[in-house]
Amino acid sequence: MEWERIRKRPEDCVGANLQDYQEYAGRFAWSQARALLDGLPNGGINIAFEAVDRHVLAGRGDKLALRWIGRDDQVRDFSYQALRAQTNRFANTLAARGVAKGDRVFSLLGRVPELYIAALGTLKNASVFSPLFSAFGPDPIKARMAIGNAKALVTSEAFYRRKIEPWRKELASLEHVFLTECSGSLPADTIDLSAALAQASDSFETIWTGPEDMALLHFTSGTTGRPKGVVHVHEAVVAHHITGRLALDLRSDDIFWCTADPGWVTGTSYGIISPLTNGATMIVDQAEFDAERWYRILQQQNVTVWYTAPTAIRMLMKVGTEIIRRFDLSRLRLMASVGEPLNPEAVAWSAAAFGKPFHDNWWQTETGGIMISNYRSMDVKPGSMGRPLPGVTAGIVERVEGGGLREITKPMAMGELALRPGWPSMMRGYLNEEERYRKCFVGGWYLTGDLAMRDDEGYYWFVGRADDVIKSAGHLIGPFEVESALMEHPAVAEAGVIGIPDPTAGEMVKAYVALKNGFESSEALRKELLGHARQRLGPAVAPKDIAFRQNLPKTRSGKIMRRLLKARELGLPEGDISTLESEER
Ligand code: AMP
Q1: pLDDT score, position 526
Q2: What's the predicted TM-score (pTM) here?
Q3: CA distances to 123, 258, 341, 362 from 347, in Å
Q4: Where is the AMP-dependent synthetase/ligase domain (predicted)?
């Protein structure tokens, strides 16, 4: 079905940072974006300095930087000045223990103030910050900390005891573990973070970092192999800042709420850095999704810009529009969405329910910041991700014989979404995986792994992933990681994992398992495997369903054909099965 274009009226655009997309994109240069930031007093650039210190030095220290709302509605406020003091304390805490420039500091925390303090304090100390999602189980945590060569970790005592302590000794690089929410008796070889912060000085001079110094390490998943450590540098802040202004229309008088968890890239680029560099006030809610609570926060906190994800929007749709009328949401100026396809129904629903649509935008861990967006001043076509950020060249490409690429210019023809590298927040590598990184680039394009189309007005339309990676509730899940955890169970001979459509989460993880000789499929074993996977991987990654199969379809070289599992699951044509091992047919 064709969805009606949502036209922007002049009054919808009053004061928008980007008034005329075409005109702005035509004159934009990245050097202008860089000039909006201060840089370190002695040259160089540092994300945390741009996010916090420069506002204090410019006399804006009293402005509210972070309002944290606890699960029990307790509120903790941090002005830019207070955030500076706390992040200085954290940087001193690291420095005093010999955690230095380039060393990796991981976090495994829920949305608590210490997470924000640790992230920014780590960057001030020129160390590398790597946030992990707190719903990960021990296996994904261990894999990522080993790849990243973690030197320090900030986590809660409860997470530590459950998810880290059992294997800590195996990770020799991990020297310092800082704990929040400590009980009376600290586990061996750990440090009480609040005591350490209390002892540390609140003054710290940001350690010098240059544009190409590593700042952030975010993990993402591919179809095969281990998770990839995506390397981002301090120069990325130029993109965090300008994309906040252009795609999210951020201004210093905004009250901004990004609902993403900082364990994923959105929660760092836009849940920490961008609102702060733009001098706004950011809201952080510790609690999980609850429609009524969310609307109450939007109203009570006078949120002006709200950035969330399709899964949450679909959950709000389920609750209906009646509830919205009970709240005064008139302060909301822009609502944006990212992370998974935003269905046109959801855009149309939001336009009717809130009087303004959700603005979809697209990017990925590797791009570090928003690349394609619906801007406040631009008409919205429900179902489209929008148009490329000024300064970013996108294209639809296809592979040609001989290994090159050809750009497809015909409107609405499907191909792979590709970008011309060169924006500041582009990844600088996959940590220690040069070959995997190199393969992302062909003929001067960066290949995103997504299939898309472009229409005659330059709007991009998402079609699907070009690979087997699963997107569930906005989280990218590598099937290989799930299969590996299942294979560790003594009953499992082989496992194939796919994403199947789910009306709320977009996709749901489903596993197919073939058992070893001597094991019988049963409901009890199915439950045991589900429990095993959940315990190892955590609820965000573990399969929600498991089906037993005698054999799994494999290529002649022994690779499980997930594509075929999916086609069979969904009753779709099986496509080219010429590589299928003969006895499997
Ligand atoms: P991640 O690296 O975890 O942020 O995941 C990035 C992937 O999420 C992209 O490559 C897309 O497959 C998907 N994605 C992100 N934003 C959108 C969007 N607006 N529409 C459709 N898919 C999206």
Answers
A1: 97
A2: 0.94
A3: 37, 18, 11, 15
A4: 57-431
CA atoms within 13 A on the CB side of 574: 10
- Least Cα distance to 149 among 174, 166, 128, 127 occurs for 174
The residue type of 459 is Y
Q: Quick check: CB of 265 below 6 Å from ligand 1?
A: yes
**Can you give the pLDDT at residue 1?**
57
| Alpha carbon of 475 to ligand 1 centroid (Å) | 9
Any ligand 1 atom below 6 A from CB of 448: yes
Query: Does residue 139's CB lie within 6 angstroms of at least one atom of ligand 1?
Result: no
**227 touches ligand 1 (CB under 6 Å):** no
Residue nearest to atom 19 of ligand 1 (CA): 362
CB of 424 closer than 8 Å to CB of 326:
no
Question: Would you say the CB of residue 450 lies under 6 angstroms from ligand 1?
Answer: yes
DSSP 279-306: T-EEEEE-S---HHHHHHHHHHTT--EE
Closest residue by CA, ligand 1 atom 23 = 340
Q: Is 221's C-beta closer than 6 angstroms to any atom of ligand 1?
A: no
| pLDDT of 585 | 39
Q: Answer yes or no: CATH 3.30.300.30 is held by domain 468-570.
A: yes
**C-beta separation of 482 from 543 below 8 A:** yes
Rounded CA gap, 585 and 580, in Å?
7
Domain ranges within the chain, ordered by starting residue: 10-454, 468-570
Ranges of residues in the chain whose predicted pLDDT is under 50: 583-585
Cα 62 to Cα 79, 116, 206, 407: the distances in Å are 5, 18, 20, 51
Find the angle CA(359)-CA(363)-CA(367) to the nearest 5 degrees. Answer: 145
User: What is the pLDDT at residue 225?
Assistant: 82
Q: Which atom of ligand 1 is nearest to the CA of 264?
A: 3
pLDDT at 584: 47
Among 66, 64, 65, 73, CA closest to 297: 73
- Quickly count: other Cβ atoms within 10 Å of residue 543's Cβ: 28
Tell me, in angstroms, the distance from the centre of ligand 1 to residue 525's CA: 34
Please tell me the predicted confidence (pLDDT) of residue 276. Answer: 98
Q: Is the CB of 340 under 6 A from ligand 1?
A: yes
> What fold does the segment set 10-454 form as a domain?
Rossmann fold (3.40.50)
Q: Contact 261/134 with Cβ under 8 angstroms?
A: yes
